[in-house]
Design a protein that fits this description.
The protein is of the alpha/beta class. It contains 9 helices and 21 strands. It has a 7-stranded mixed beta sheet with strand order 15-14-13-16-19-21-20, sandwiched between helices. The protein is globular, with a radius of gyration of 23 Å. About 1% of the residues have low confidence.
Amino acid sequence: MNLKIPNVTVHPASLKYLHQGHPWVTLDSFSKKFPPNPFLIAREAKSSFLLLHDPHHNKIKARLWSSQTSVPVVSVETFHTQLLDRLRAAILKRKVLRASHPQVFKRDNFYLFFAEADFIPGLQGLLLGDRLILLDFTKTIWESHLDFIFSQVKQLATTILELEIREMFYQKRPGPFLTYPDKTPARANPFVIKEFDLRYNLNFTLGSDPGLYTDMSAVRFHTAPLFPQARVLNLFSYTGAFSLFALAHGARQVTSVDLSPKYMALLTENLRLNPHLDPAKHQALIGPVNAKVKDLEAAHALFEVIICDPPSASSDGHSRHNHWKTAGELLASLDPLLASGGSLVVFNNTHQITRKKFEQDLRQIPALKKYSMKEFYGLDFDCPRLPHFPEGDYLKGVLLKKIHSSS
């Protein structure tokens, strides 16, 4: 059955961005008047854009599905055909990537498709061992299509990647994980996956993430040369992926700092899961990062590598803290802890700060004037980036080298 798709007028600025390849139409005086239909057409003289309408999203009111000289009336069946083509193309890309970069994909966790960058707007497919998780960043776009998507992705994973999916989960970000198809809350049932020969204990009841950030996997791989014989300080350590990775790549000592006793307990459990790592080489510090940094300076601690990967915001139970607003103060306080010639790796994980602004902010910190920017990190491999879409380029990192002192 064909769908009658209404034409809508979009703001001239939104139309300009659509032409440039930006895939969102955000809330404005035009988009708030869109009719409630799930599909919309933004039409102008020479081109048209087929949009997926998300009326209940507080910011992103529509996401680009296709642009062409003329957009025909479509049916749900033709939409599913196009969707299946995109899912297949994304999973075929992962097959090629896994074959061409076997060391980067020496892990059970990777993305089968990555939302807008794979032209499946607002939806990610994450594989954690034999578990498939659909991560939905929209309010209403995908809910009526979940049965189709789960069944097709499960089949494609088997036929293309030769991987069997045994359990399926759904998460409307940043909400709880639900089992699928019954959509009941996931049980506290820990499971283990491997990433770069390291074992991690994951659990779908920890919060909005299961205990390991897969979008950081390729970044961790690239940092391996920093760690042999280094003393490493891992700030905002979460469940310890960088800490374990550093130990596995020859660090002589790793100090992990996190505010959360729960996450530090999980880090300790992850250490136990990897008996080839020496727990005597690891120190766990629980408390506010700024306070622990002061304690380390007072103890005259010195490190060759410091990892600083703050969450965009965190809470101590009394108030929420935006870490990037005070990043200059924190990064300046790290200078006494870093040995001459040492490496400072800094990350920012929000689309609200562009890569250009991130680098500018770092260059304006007086204490970092004696550092040189050596390498930049970001989404890669199974987490591609879409050109002209800065919001999708949310993960930004830089390797700063402390210039050797002349003394």
